[in-house]
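Slide 14.
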Amino acid sequence: MSKFNELNEKAGMSVHIGLMIWKEMKQKGMTIVTLSEQLAISKSKIQDIINSKSLDIELLVNISEALKHNFLAYYQTGAVFRDLSHEEKRKSSEEIRRLKVLLTEKNKALDLKDKTIQNLSNTISILEKGQLY
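Slide 15: predicted structure.
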């Protein structure tokens, strides 16, 4: 069972995701054949998905993209997911700050390299002029 489904169960949520997928398919007029072709999986696997109460997160994301519907939203009402989302946002913010500092340092190094190249070019020009005389 995926971590996502374990969290779903801990949160006491009872979403029959297969049923939600089937409803969305019907609403959009999509057949099992069409969805199986879009996901490159068998028709019997689609039928298994429709009968499933829970799915692997990666598969659910792929189905969400194929049907252009966010099935993850059915799970986002629990406190466990709010906390997870908050923690993910905090970690992302920290990573963005770290990357900005790193980018600033790299840009300074590039500027210094450019100045060094310019100074060396000037030195070469002066030396070349000196040899001509």
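Speaker note: The two ends are 81 Å apart (CA to CA).
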